[in-house]
Structures are given as C-alpha cells and as structure tokens.
Amino acid sequence: MTSAARPTWAPAKGSEDQGGSKMFGPRMGVSSKDLPSNKVLKTRAEGQDDAVEVANRDLKRELLERETKHYKNKPDLLAAKQLKIQALEHTIEVPGRVDDEFGATRELLAAREQDEDFDFDGEDAKAAAGGRRWAEEEGGASAAGAAVDGSESESDDSDDSDDDDDDEAALLAELEKIKRERAEERERKQREDESEALESRREEVMRGNPLLAAEGGGGDFNVARRWDDDVVFRNQTRNEPKRQKRFINDTIRSDFHRRFLDKYMK
C-alpha cells in the first residue's frame, strides 16, 4: 500500500485497525543551529584601548605631536602654517600652559580654514604683536638666567632674539606677498568673467535679431531642399489607382489566395 496519499497529520480513524493506532508526541531532538551561542558579553582586553588606558593617556599631547610631525613633512607650507608649527612646538615643550601669545595666530588660521579667500588685513598686526610678546617674554626669561650665567649667556640670548625678529619679519613679508598675489588673481578673474559675460550677451543679441545675423553672415533663412528633389523616379505611383482592401470570408477566394496562386502556380 502506498503512503503518498495519506495525510501528514493523524488521519481520521474509522476503526481500531485503520491508521494503526499511532501515538503522536512532541519532538525531543534539537538542531545544532537552535542551540544558544555567545552567552558571555565580550569586553575589551588589555591593549585594546579600554576605559582605564584611555583615561591615563594624554590625548591632547599626542594630537599636538602628530600635527607637528605632519606639518614638518610639508615643505611647501604657507607662512601662517609655519606660525602654527611654532605654536605647537611651544605647547609641547611647556605642557599645561595656556598659549595666550599664540591666540592671534590661531584666530588667523581658523578664519583661513573657513574661507580660502580670507583677507589678512588687520590680522598681520595681531600676529606680529603676539610674536613680539612671545619674543619679549622669552627675552625676559633669558635675561633672568643671564644674571647667573654671565655675560656670555647674555650675548647668546641677544643673538637668539635677533634671529627670532628676522624670522618674524620674513614671515610677515611672506604673508604680504601671499595677500598681494591673491588680490591680483581675484582682479584678473573678475576681468575675465566680465569679458566672457559681455561676449555671451553680444552673441545672444546677434542671434535674436535676424537683420544683424544676416549682416554678420551667421544665419541662413533659405529652406533646405529634400534629398530626393532631383531624383529621376520620384512620385511614379502618384496617379495609379489605389486598391481598396476588402474582406472575404473564404480562404480560397480571398485576395491573398489569388495573389499566391498567381505568383507560384502559373
């Protein structure tokens, strides 16, 4: 007896023997894919930047060191970037000190990052004042140490201050040069835009006026001829009578059957 026609669940029983008196119960087997997994919450191990390691790290100092290393590897930095490098180096050498003397430089760099065409007018004096104040403080500290070290230390400190003044003057000259080049580039671009706008408007006016276009030779108002105007066998069937389509409900007497016989049976 085949079992293909029997239902998949308990069949209706008509007697004691029909269906075999089978007992059905819940399945006791469990699939391996149904078993629980990952029952323990994983946490960061040692060396994976856990909370204690992050709390003990000096993140600000690491950031300043990476920025200083990055800017030193760029030989074509602007003068303002060089000022930022000096500020970062000074911050690393004196940790925990608020760098008030570099406040003007940071404002200048922040404005430049927001706008590439930032005008440095008025900010050069602030940067120069901050540099002078830093040089004066450094010079004062050197003078205090020179009272103990002697006349040789005083001469070295004066040479260092002169070098700082020379570097500051070179940076300011570079800033002035950059500002002048940007102004010239802005004026040149403005002149080019004005000339292009004037030329485009002139061309638009020429196209809009047919008289000016005809004088300038820019337009042709003649109707173009068709490609078959001068052919020999054009419009040969113009005067021939047109065949009217008709419907005949007979496969033997239809027009298609007649054409078929004329073509293949003659």
UniProtKB/TrEMBL annotation:
Residues 174-206 have a biased composition (Basic and acidic residues). Residues 1-53, 110-220 are annotated as: Disordered. InterPro entries: Cwf_Cwc_15 (IPR006973). GO terms for molecular function: RNA binding. Belongs to the CWC15 family. Residues 151-169 have a biased composition (Acidic residues). The keyword Magnesium does not apply. GO terms for cellular component: catalytic step 2 spliceosome. This is Cell cycle control protein Cwf15/Cwc15. Keywords: mRNA processing, mRNA splicing. Residues 140-150 have a biased composition (Low complexity). GO terms for biological process: mRNA cis splicing, via spliceosome.
